[in-house]
């Protein structure tokens, strides 16, 4: 399977939204997770596309995934995060909104996406850290990120969902 990852453009907004909504529906039905169900509107994606923060993932020319990579933290990270990040004030890259079509999960695509993020941050920034969170009640997802070298930093309450904060120190993993 040929995997290609590229920055999204505004013409792809509907497809990005559809992938995220389908992933949210799958998590809701199959895993009983409701943090992406119903999925919110597209308004939050417009500034991310304009800032070139959204990426799309193709498998054999079919768009199957999306994620964000940004220097802007999620809004709920703006409070004191010193209990979660090693050096909370250090410049970091934030990974978020990772979604793969359910039909393309468990095929190694997620691992390739995460390797792409690591490489991109190393090559295009001087940031030492990659930070993000995942639903704390999804053990398979938490294991996936841990297996890739991301370290659990603690559970953070976000609205009605506990998320596990993850961080990778790129200086330790070169």
Quick overview:
This protein is an alpha+beta fold and 174 residues long.
Structure explained in plain terms:
With 174 residues, the protein is α+β, with helices and mostly antiparallel strands. The protein has a single domain, classed as Aminopeptidase (3-Layer(aba) Sandwich). The protein has four helices and seven strands; from the N terminus they run βααβββαβαββ. A seven-stranded mixed beta sheet has the order 1-2-3-4-5-7-6. The longest helix is centred in the first third of the chain and has 19 residues, at 13-31. The two termini are 27 Å apart. The model has no long low-confidence stretch (mean pLDDT 90).
Q: What is the straight-line distance between the termini?
A: 27 Å
Helix share, percent? 25-40%
Largest sheet: 7 strands, mixed
Low-confidence stretches: none
Listing every helix as H and every strand as E from the N terminus to the C terminus, the arrangement reads EHHEEEHEHEE
The class by helix and strand makeup works out as: alpha+beta
Under CATH, the topology is which?
Answer: Aminopeptidase
Mean pLDDT: 90
Which value, in Å, is the CA radius of gyration? 15 Å
**Strand adjacency order, main sheet:** 1-2-3-4-5-7-6
Count the helices. How many?
4
What are the defining features of this structure?
174 residues; alpha+beta; Aminopeptidase; 7 strands; 29% helix; globular
């Amino acid at each position: 399977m040929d995997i290609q990852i590229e920055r999204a453009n505004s013409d792809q907004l509907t497809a990005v939204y559809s992938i995220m909504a389908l992933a949210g529906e799958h998590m809701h039905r199959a895993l009983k997770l409701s943090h992406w169900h119903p999925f919110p509107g597209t308004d939050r994606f417009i500034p991310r596309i304009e800032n070139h923060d959204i990426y799309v993932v193709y498998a054999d020319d079919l768009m199957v995934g999306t994620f964000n990579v940004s220097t802007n933290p999620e809004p709920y990270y703006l409070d004191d995060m010193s209990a979660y990040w090693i050096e909370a004030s250090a410049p970091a890259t934030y990974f978020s909104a990772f979604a793969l079509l359910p039909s393309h999960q468990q095929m190694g695509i997620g691992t390739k996406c995460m390797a792409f993020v690591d490489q991109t941050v190393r090559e295009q920034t001087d940031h030492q850290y990659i930070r993000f969170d995942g639903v704390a009640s999804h053990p398979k997802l938490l294991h996936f990120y841990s297996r890739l070298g991301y370290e659990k930093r603690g559970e953070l309450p976000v609205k009605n969902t506990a998320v596990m904060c993850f961080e990778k120190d790129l200086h330790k993993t070169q």
